[in-house]
Amino acid sequence: MQATIEATMNQMQVLAYLPFYPLLSFILLVLFAKRLSWLTASILSVGAVLLSALSSAYLLQVAMLTPNSVVDVHLWQWFKLGDMAVNFAFRLDSLSMVMSLVVSGVGLLIHAYAAAYMKDDENFSRFMAYMNLFIVAMLLLVLADNLVLLYLGWEGVGLCSFLLIGFWYQDNDNAMAAKKAFIVTRVGDTFLAIGLFLLFRETGSLAINDITALAGSGEIANEMAFWICLLLVGGAVGKSAQLPLQTWLPDAMAGPTPVSALIHAATMVTAGVYLIARMQGVFVLTPEVMTIVSWIGALTLLLAGIAALAQSDIKRVLAYSTMSQIGYMMLALGAGAFSAGVMHLMTHAFFKALLFLTAGSIILALHHQQNIFKMGGLFKKLPLVSILFFIGIAALIAFPGTSGFVSKEAILAELYSSNTAGPVFWWLAIIGALITSIYSFRLLFITFFGDYRGDVKVHPVTDKLQLLPLVILALLALAGGLIGLNLTALFPAPPTELNLVTGHSDPAWLHNVAIATPFVGIVIAYLLYFPKTGQAVVGSDSSLTKFAHGGLGFDRLYEWLLVKPFVFIAKVNRRDVIEQLVTGISWNVQAWHEVLRASQNGQLRWYGAVIGVGVVMLLAILIFSGTSEPSLQVMNGGAQG
């Protein structure tokens, strides 16, 4: 049982200031964007995230001394509506501590890389300001003491993703991708908002501590918990790009590569996973919703893996791999393996940031070429970057000895013994791991082996500010699993009556199959892709390849089901009565405006003519308005006198 402790003044200050360093940097960068040099803007933006990372490290040290403790820091009362008082307060427990480390630590490395990557951009300060704001929003989300503040951070990361995906908005594709991400995730956000309203109606509070206590004591009705959790899942699948709201993520690759790394590794797509892990006390009351979460994760990891097999853009391959890996996390959360799911979130942040940033270096070296079929032979031309990319791929496929192996093994071990269709989900996870290994080494073989197929000269990557974050991330991708084991050991065990995972040991063959799966995938990829580098299993013009390349038809499906009917209804209603009334009023106003404007032409003779016409009209009114009757009364009065 977690115990809430009173924070010391030092802890309170460190926790309170943690998200405000990048917030201050954001404000300064926005106010003085045109006046700051590249060096000043870099020091300001990277230094702010560094302070947040150091603060998180300090709080980790404190947490190690007092495991299973919770620190609540109340800053001020935000607002009060009736009986609901919402505080601007932070909550530090094992989960928020791990998340703040991931957000600020990995975010720091991405910021440092971005300073080099975007050095020549004329809007560099604005870009780094948006990156800082992204960190602020995510830290608010993971440190929030209540769900209202969490929702503020939730919407904040959505806004920042819109700003950063469409950063190069002059390109229409980038602008459209930003709009798509914003609109699709708003659908999930609507579900989340409704879920929060229901949760408040049921519990009378949106404070996380109160909700957890009420859920543990059975104060939340199971039927209401079902609908609340289902709505929360709707919000989670939108932010974390899971079925059926996953279509925005591949298109989000239109933004600068550091943005892709930040979204996929440290911020936005992990928000949905965090939400479910944070609300686990309510979710365990509804095994049906937990099973739905697992099925969403399982289907997403399989379908995203299939789509990744047909991609030609290096960033889109990694985007679909992110959807697949988030699927593993959802699969774990649905099975009640919350610690394993969060640990995979952390290790995934390490190797996915590494993969995206090394891909960014490759793209720069090839003059912004992203088509893997116009690469090849890069292992000879970019040896260090190639080795670093290989380390990221090894962690992605859960190669033994990497961080991905440790976290994915933890998920698989708990999946099989789960009380909810464990063996079925275990086999689906194994199939997903096989597909992951195949598309990962397809990417590796096509990009780094064979002959170079590009038409531009490859520039070597020598910028130390680019390479240093990559080396650090490579070390974390290798050894980060040990860090994950130590951190998730701080998590309290769920109450016995809420524990969805049985405690019996798994057969040895399960572990052997899990270990062998990546090697089988490597062999298959070698047989299919290595001998004929650049050739797919089926022809690139086949219908199957096009179907997978297009994201398995979800965009087209939604266009027919949602977009076209909406456009049709809008066209039909374009000339309705209300529209005609409003248009008629505006037309009349405009017509009278044109008439009156004609009288103000600056010509004296025109003004004289108008005055003359006015006098004539006035006299006519006086003559024909019946003035003879008053005159008669006057004459009669005079005769009597």
Molecular structure report:
By secondary structure, the chain is mainly alpha-helical. Among the domains are: 1-283, no CATH class; 580-640, no CATH class. The chain is built from 27 helices and three strands. A three-stranded mixed beta sheet has the order 1-2-3. Strand 2 and strand 3 form a beta hairpin. Helix 5 packs antiparallel against helix 6 (147-165), helix 14 (287-308) packs antiparallel against helix 15 and helix 15 runs antiparallel to helix 16 (338-365). The longest helix is centred in the N-terminal third of the chain and has 32 residues, at 172-203. The model is unreliable at 1-6, 494-503 and 630-641 (pLDDT under 50).
The major beta sheet can be summarized as:
3 strands, mixed
Compute the separation of the termini in Å: 112 Å
Count of alpha and pi helical runs: 27
What structural class results from the helix and strand content?
mainly alpha
The strand count comes to 3
* SSE succession: EHHHEEHHHHHHHHHHHHHHHHHHHHHHHH
**How helical, in percent, are the residues?**
over 70%
Write down the overall geometry.
globular
How confident is the prediction overall: mean pLDDT? 86
Radius of gyration: 32 Å
* β-strand amount: under 5%
Oligomer: single chain
Unreliable runs: 1-6, 494-503, 630-641
Question: What's the topology here?
Answer:
Layout (H helix, E strand, L loop, with lengths): L2 E3 L3 H9 L2 H12 L6 H28 L3 E13 L2 E9 L1 H24 L6 H20 L3 H19 L6 H32 L4 H9 L5 H18 L8 H4 L5 H10 L1 H11 L1 H4 L3 H22 L5 H21 L3 H28 L12 H4 L1 H14 L6 H14 L5 H27 L15 H25 L19 H22 L13 H7 L4 H19 L4 H22 L5 H20 L4 H13 L1
Parallel strand pairs: 1-2
Antiparallel strand pairs: 2-3
Helix pairs in contact: 1-3, 2-3, 2-5, 3-4, 3-5, 4-5, 4-11, 4-16, 4-21, 5-6, 6-7, 7-9, 9-12, 9-14, 11-16, 12-15, 12-16, 14-15, 14-20, 15-16, 15-19, 15-20, 16-18, 16-19, 16-21, 18-20, 18-21, 19-20, 19-21, 19-22, 20-22
